[in-house]
Amino acid sequence: MEIKDTSDYLLPPFFESLHRPFHQPLKSTRWVCEFMNSSKKVLRASEVNIEFYLFLVNKLHSEYNRNTNFELSGLSSRSAIFAVFNYLHEQKSKQEKINLIIDTLRCNNRNDVQKQIYSSYKAASYYVNLAKEKLNLVNSTSKLTQYGKELVLIRTQRHSTNLTKAEKVLYFKLLVKNDFLLFISLCLFKKLEFKFNVENIENLYFDFIDHFYGIKHFNYNRRSLSNYNIVREAWISQIQILTKTNQIKSEFVKILKSDPVTSKWFNDLHLNFTTYINENFKNDRSFESKKLDFIRFYEKCIDEKKDVKGFVNLYDIKENIRISYVKFNEFVSKFYEDEKSKRHIFFSNIVSSIDGRKRFIVRGRPVLKIKFKHEIK
After folding, report:
1. What is the pTM of this model?
2. Average pLDDT, whole number, for the chain?
């Protein structure tokens, strides 16, 4: 799957929005392609969603009947599909079914089964969107693209939500082609999550794409990006991209490096990611560790009555942390800026006896002692 090297690809592509959960099941796009491939008439854009919806209800009803373990996040439930299937099949003709669906979508006061029609129809429309607008399996005239044709030719497990190896490879290529930046970045951050046992990588992930790629949109909509990450994590799981230690499997790295454009994207991304770990992440972790030590030794000085009216000499803390004057001064300044909004911090340069040691400089002022207004918890 060659990607053309044009100016449009200076910034690797990414999806600005995704729907959780309806964009999660990749297999749904195969069903869209199977429907398009089996359609005996040319469908207008306005007909695609409702025609596919009828196809999908029948397909899911058949699968739920056949397989008691059939389930996947983003699919309508067994009970919903059974209720919708039975309700629609009370109608004698296909056109009557279509009219019933249209009426249901238009009405405001829906009964229980109508609510299930509305919800499952919405899901079906997002499957079409994923196949058409996101992955380019279907073109603007509702015909299969070369990728859509390739997908339906792949032998698959009968109606199963599991993907075959060939399907996984094709979906990976499609996601790389259309969502490289955020999809592959997330794979790398999953590695970071495992290696350093990070409980929540989202803030790091946000900061990375903002800092290195200038994508500020998500700064104002972080809840949405969190939901988008859940969708991408579902794709990562379905394709089984990562090893047990969250490394990208070699077979997928080979795919990335097989095309000159994606190879460049990957090399640049990996370089930026490595820089972030060394210059941002590790420094932040080191700072957080020193911050805990600083607070612990401050409290120790208070317990041992080494303070004067709550003011602790910074040199007493520095002796335990054991770093140079310059590094400690940098730390104290950063500590103050980071913590001043969370707790009241006071500095003092007043001593009861002569102390000729070099003062620390915080915001341009010489200081020797520090005090927290409230006890640190």
Report:
1. 0.78
2. 89
